[in-house]
Amino acid sequence: MEKKIRVLVAKPGLDGHDRGAKIVARALRDAGMEVIYTGLHQTAEMVVETAIQEDVDVVGLSLLSGAHMTLFVDVARLIKKKGLDDVLIIGGGIIPEEDISKLHKEGIAGVFGPGTPCEDIIKFIKENVKR
Amino acid sequence: MIKNKELENIKKIKSDWEKNYYMPHVKKHPERRKKFENLSWNEINNLYTPEDVAHIDYIKDIGFPGLYPFLRGIHPNLHRGRLWTFRQFSGFGSAEETNQRYKYLLDHGETGLSVAFDYPTLYGYDTDHAMSRGEFGKCGVAISSLQDMEILFKEIPIDKVTTSMTINGPAAIVWGFYIANAENRGINRRIIGGTIQNDILKEYIAQKSFIFPPEPSMRLIVDTFEFGYKEIPRWNTISISGYHIREAGSTAVQELAFTVGDGIEYVKWAMKRGLKIDDFAPRLSFFFNSHNDFFEEIAKYRAARRIWAKGLKKLGAKKSRSLLMRFHTQTAGVSLTAQQPEINITRVTLQALAAVLGGTQSLHTNSMDEALALPSEKAVRIALRTQQIIAEESGVTSTVDPLGGSYYIEWLTDKMEEETYQYWDRVEKLGGVLPAIEKGFYQREIANAAYKYQKEIEEKKRIVVGVNEYKMDEPVDIPILKMDEKGEERQINRLKKLRKDRNKQKYERTIKALRKAAEDNENLMPYILDCVHSYATLGETCQVLRDVFGEYEEPAIY
Amino acid sequence: MKDIAKKVLSGDSRAIARLITLAENNDPSANDSMKDIHPHTGKAHVIGITGVMGSGKSTLIYELTRLYRKQGKTVGIIAIDPTSPFSGGALLGDRVRMMELTMDEGVFIRSMGTRGMLGGLASAVYDVVEILDASGKDVVIVETVGVGQAEVDIIKIADTTLVIIVPGLGDSIQTLKAGVMEIADIYVVNKADRAGVEQTVAEVESLVDITCSEKERKTPILSTIAKHGEGVKELIIEIENHEKYLKKTKEFETKRRLRYEAELIEIIRKRLMNFIFDEEQFKDKVELLIDQISKKQIDPHSAAEEILSKILK
Ligand SMILES: Nc1nc2c(ncn2[C@@H]2O[C@H](COP(=O)(O)OP(=O)(O)O)[C@@H](O)[C@H]2O)c(=O)[nH]1
Ligand SMILES: [Mg+2]
Fold first, then answer.
1. Any residues with Cβ below 6 Å from ligand 1, and which?
2. B521 in the same domain as B427
3. Is B103 in the same domain as B54?
4. CB within 5 A of ion ligand 2: which residues?
């Protein structure tokens, strides 16, 4: 068996700052993962449908506009609704402390702020991936 | 810059010094790194001497401030006369809240306004559009119609204060809101001043808030150039921006090369349309980043001025006003750390100092908390005060271009100029700016630089204080700005009412006329102004252009 | 029949996606399901698309799919990108061009890394084609990486192979000359909005004249502007013509035979490799033999014979 971790890196919403998403995408590739990148301006529905078709282990969301409480939560709820219980959800962006616990409660297991070393994200995925 | 005999002498002494003094010293006291590099991965030598600048002809290559090639500055007395404009980029939530913030800033000594718009506005969507979900007021103020613009500038003297607006895809429409607002307030549109960013090329390259494909976007931009110099002569119709290219992870050299290259591209498009270069070129302005490597940044601004002057001359510009590069600077948002946010004040100070020494015309200093959230009032005030300290206390404004003639600075300035031309050659080989964008050339160059930089930080080849060294565990104690939760609802209701109350015939007539003009090849600005005056919303007006022009999809590049 | 196989046959996206994963991972639990679905395969027309990076393959697939959908056909898309030989990871970015198709229930898109296979295909691609075929897709489109001389495996799986060329790329014509000429059933000169289309078309034409002089069917050359959907309708007609031609001439059977041969070889290869390198009884022996080769105690051929003799026993 040659199991590989598959990760969807998605940018929901209108924010076009993709430097972070791209750096993370590359770092994950360099850590041996298969990274599916969707490009900009995704709706929650598109993110989740892509996650289904690509059968990913991880959905990584990136958003710097501050709309995470709406858009991350939209995705997380839809993932739950579709019953994708074995998908690990992580998110990155400029996220104030007080929002982090709320996001955790919504099922976004890892929340990473600016300047997080890619190593930390890789480690988090490897330790928490559900299958 | 120096006579041959003297140079021979310096060379000789230098090589002696290196052999007999420097090397033995280094052997005993090794240097901290094997190689010293700046942020463009240029190797920096231990010392620069007249040897490194021997090829420079002072009068031709450096010259005097206010004179070609403008290396030392665009005015003869630079900051001894007028200080740069203190212009803080700002906007959040609803028009009402941002209006309050502007008044606060002006009360505290800000001398120009700079509007940050939220994402829906940047993409030409009204606040009640489905794609706007979750984004209202998050990264800037939401402006969906002339009515919102009226509120935004209520009681602000727009006949005196100049306003810069960071808007690109729908720039022509938002500019229309501003002009219409002035007209409705009885202010002659010929006296209002300000800037629209209106730089679509860097959106394709880096920032990604584009709407239309390149050709129609360029057409719209040239429309604004033409309308601008004829009708709104004090307005900068574009701010050609390296800031976002840098924020996306480029090096300083890339920022320089791509931005000034974009500038030349705009000039070519306008000339192709038949505009005269000396008519529109004086209204082109620039916008650069100020990042961490102090001297590299200073050299970048100096090189930019010279490259631009040479480039425009080559394209046939005659007027001095056309050749000189005026630019705004913002300190680097990406360099701010979420860790120990207060130390960002120090970073910003150094970056701002570099911008001033580089001869900037206008400056935004970032607030310390921007890596965490929208800046609070206190953080903005400190950022503004930083500029005031540089201006009033540091003494750096007493003379023009104080670093000019420094062996290191002049060497680096030359080097950056040379590397810029190398980049231009590569772009040329790809068929020019638009084909290079389509092929993802810029995007790939930037992504590679960003990735390399990030890896170096993770490998501790580069130190970022508070991030990979000098760390501490601390509760982050930054007051977070709270937005008015009713703002979005209020604005949506206002929009609904506006759509109901406006003169329907007039609205439909102007929108129809715009569509026709867009399908033909007329200058769209007058038609856009008519739409705006009839209270067509941003989304409605933009949709007409979306229908006619189509939407841009970016080439996927890593 | 296993539950997952039933669901695949009913077109259930999650089951399709999961079975693909199992096949990709060489998970033995996929074998039974693959057996179950096989009788339901063979209906889909498989289109292979190859061409250098950036030539517009993904864009073209997007446009083709939109048209097929208008005709009421369902489409499965397999987009293969290279796996990094250093890390084993991959960046799979083809979907970006096709995001508009995501919410269409009649379309299923899957991105794959080559995972160490040469030839531009992924080892599991045969399985994935069968899965999409069994799930009821009328058309299955496979996008593969590059046309170099090594990346010609696409013909082993496709009924119709499209080779994409763009104007002004001298090297791609060179590559064609160097021997991949034979693989195209249809040439597509994309980016026809660019300068030099006529010249490129002419160059391809002269190549076709040489290679097809003795054949019954002359490989057609079409120009398209994928970005604007131009020429795509004509391309679909050519694909249909090719399908008709295949069926008429029995070449269809030859092609399918080729595919099953490749598939069989791939399955045997994979299973054998798993057997040798993963099974407990062999693993240690293999390690030992490699040690011995390194120490020059045995040569690789004799070592291989030793392993094979154990299996054949
Ligand atoms: N000018 C032009 N560009 C095209 C055309 N078709 C695709 N492109 C562009 O070429 C780039 C690469 O396309 P893509 O489909 O990703 O190529 P792939 O790597 O072969 O899959 C994208 O920016 C497309 O928009 C075309 O017909 N004309
Ligand atoms: Mg592709």
1. B 438, 555-556; C 51, 53-59, 94, 97, 190-191, 193-194, 225-227
2. no
3. no
4. C 57-58, 94
CATH number for the domain spanning B421: value is 3.20.20.240
For residue B500, the enclosing domain spans 493-549
The predicted model scores a pTM of 0.87
ipTM: 0.94
**B551/chain C closest Cα distance in angstroms:** 12
Residue of C nearest to B553 (CA): C97
Shortest alpha-carbon distance between residue A98 and chain C (Å): 33
> Residue C143 CA: which ligand 1 atom is closest?
21
Are residues B113 and B234 both part of a single domain?
Answer: yes
B453 plus B501 within the same structural domain: no
User: Is there a single domain that holds both residue B51 and residue B87?
Assistant: no
Closest among A10, A46, A17, A20 to A118, alpha carbons compared = A20
Structure tokens at B151: 């509120």
Given a contact cutoff of 8 angstroms between Cβ atoms, the answer to whether A14 and B119 are in contact is yes
Query: How far does residue C163's CA lie from ligand 2's centre (Å)?
Result: 13
What DSSP element (H or E) covers B354?
helix B344-357
Domain count of chain B?
Answer: 3
* Residues B55 and B87 occupy one common structural domain: no
Nearest CA to ligand 1 atom 23: B555
For chain A, how many residues are written? 131
Do C113 and A34 lie within an 8 Å CB cutoff?
A: yes
Tell me, yes or no, whether B506 and B424 share the same domain.
no
What does the domain layout of chain C look like in residue ranges? 39-249, 265-312
User: Among B458, B477, B506, where does a domain finish?
Assistant: B458
B556 interfaces chain A, CB cutoff of 8 Å: yes
Regarding beta strands A110-112 and C160-165, do their DSSP bridges make them parallel or antiparallel, or are they unpaired? unpaired
- The residue whose C-alpha atom lies closest to atom 2 belonging to ligand 1 is C191
CB of B340 within 8 Å of a chain A CB? The answer is no
The reply to whether B414 falls in a domain is yes
Q: What is the pLDDT along chain B (558 residues), one digit of tens a residue?
A: 667 889 999 999 999 999 999 999 999 999 999 999 999 999 999 999 999 999 999 999 999 999 999 999 999 999 999 999 999 899 999 999 999 999 999 998 888 999 999 999 999 999 999 999 989 998 899 999 999 999 999 999 999 999 999 999 999 999 999 999 999 999 999 999 999 999 999 999 999 999 999 999 999 999 999 999 999 999 999 999 999 999 999 999 999 999 999 999 999 999 999 999 999 999 999 999 999 999 999 999 999 999 999 999 999 999 999 999 999 999 999 999 988 999 999 999 999 999 999 999 999 999 998 888 778 889 999 999 999 999 999 999 999 999 999 999 999 999 999 999 999 999 999 999 999 998 899 999 999 999 999 999 999 999 999 999 999 887 766 676 777 888 899 999 999 999 999 999 999 999 999 999 999 989 999 999 999 999 999 999 999 999 999 999 877 655
How far, in Å, is the centroid of ligand 1 from the Cα of C221? 18
The residue type of B177 is F
**Does the residue B453 lie in any domain?**
yes
Domains of chain A, with CATH numbers?
6-126 (3.40.50.280)
DSSP string, B307-345: HHHHHHHHTT--SHHHH---EEEEE-GGG--SSSGGGHH
> Strand, coil or helix: what is C197?
helix
Q: Which atom of ligand 1 is nearest to the CA of C93?
A: 16
**Which of the residues C58, C95, C96, C193 would you substitute to probe the B interface, choosing the one with the greatest number of B C-beta atoms within 10 Å?**
C96
B439, B455, B551, B553, best to mutate vs chain C, most C CBs in 10 Å:
B553
Let me know if residue B356 belongs to a domain.
yes
In one-letter notation, the amino acid at residue B180 is A
- How many contiguous H segments (helices) and E segments (strands) does chain B have? 22, 9
Is B69 inside any structural domain? Answer: no
CB contact under 8 A, B138 and A115: no
* Residue B353 shares a structural domain with residue B440: yes
DSSP for residue B376: P
Quote the CA–CA distance of B5 and B1 in Å, as a whole number. 12
Output the CATH code of domain C39-249.
Answer: 3.40.50.300
Q: DSSP 3-state assignment of A110?
A: strand
User: Best interface-test mutation with B: which of A9, A17, A38, A71 has the largest number of B CBs within 10 A?
Assistant: A17
Single-letter amino acid, residue B508: E
